[in-house]
Amino acid sequence: MIKRVVHLLEIPFVNTTHEQFVDELKRRLEQKEKTFVVTANPGILMKTKEDNEFQHVVKRADYVTPDGIGVVLLSKLKRRPLKERITGFDLTVDLLQYADDENLSVYLLGAKESVNKEAARQIQSTYPNLNIVGRHHGYIDIDDEKIHDEIYEQSPDIVFVALGAPKQELFIDRHIKNAQKGLFIGVGGSLDVHAKAVKRAPDIWIKLNLEWLYRMIKQPERIKRNIKVFSFMIKTLLKND
Ligand code: UDP
């Protein structure tokens, strides 16, 4: 069990490397321990401050990972340094590989119907030994009983929930109480990338910590949201806590 966490705005972030974190998740999957993972970028951190219910949900998760250079940078400037970024997309890749190695079952929830379907097709062809026991697009009501029932009945080992925040975390929080087992992880736009509908930033942009800039250039509709998140991060930085 990873004990080391760093608190930023009351949110406990796991302070470990991506590799060690994946090992921890594999151990929990082996033991069939129910697990809720939030991959929190600065936008999610901001939403925890704007919405009390959402903050409680994030605090109830088993793990919150720093998904975004903004969170890591904030931790460093606050002199509580986090080791590294642990992104939702990178976790999907390693978890899918593990599911393939161990013949695990997965459920894919989220994105548009065409994207969800194509993501399932791509994932099945890249990871032929994992078992996709169900999939559904993400334009749903998070209380939709039909989807909750389907996931309960299938009881998958891993459920990738790609509805964007806060919808994906609220969905998991509602579902997990009654689930028998399963690793539930909110992964934002990851299914779009698996479906090849959206390209992930080239490695050099990721290495230079500029993935956010690449996404903003490719998806200009994010600019307004990013300016809001950026000014929130500056204010947080200037506050003494
Ligand atoms: N999405 C969804 N249902 C919704 C709203 C969004 O399934 O009601 C999907 C959307 O199609 C996209 C993902 O959620 O695949 C959100 O991606 P984004 O990159 O915006 O995630 P965020 O940055 O908010 O985590």
UniProtKB/TrEMBL annotation:
GO molecular function terms listed in the Swiss-Prot or TrEMBL record: N-acetylglucosaminyldiphosphoundecaprenol N-acetyl-beta-D-mannosaminyltransferase activity
Pathway the protein contributes to: Cell wall biogenesis; teichoic acid biosynthesis
Keyword Transmembrane: no
One BP annotation, GO: teichoic acid biosynthetic process
This protein's record includes keyword Glycosyltransferase: yes
Keywords noted in UniProt: Cell wall biogenesis/degradation, Glycosyltransferase, Teichoic acid biosynthesis, Transferase
Catalytic function, reaction form: UDP-N-acetyl-alpha-D-mannosamine + N-acetyl-alpha-D-glucosaminyl-di-trans,octa-cis-undecaprenyl diphosphate = N-acetyl-beta-D-mannosaminyl-(1->4)-N-acetyl-alpha-D-glucosaminyl di-trans,octa-cis-undecaprenyl diphosphate + UDP + H(+)
One Pfam family per UniProt: Glyco_tran_WecG
EC code: 2.4.1.187
Function: Catalyzes the conversion of GlcNAc-PP-undecaprenol into ManNAc-GlcNAc-PP-undecaprenol, the first committed lipid intermediate in the de novo synthesis of teichoic acid.
NCBIfam families: wecG_tagA_cpsF
Family per record: Belongs to the glycosyltransferase 26 family. TagA/TarA subfamily.
PANTHER family: PTHR34136, UDP-N-ACETYL-D-MANNOSAMINURONIC ACID TRANSFERASE (PTHR34136:SF1)
Stated name of the protein: N-acetylglucosaminyldiphosphoundecaprenol N-acetyl-beta-D-mannosaminyltransferase
Origin species: Nosocomiicoccus massiliensis
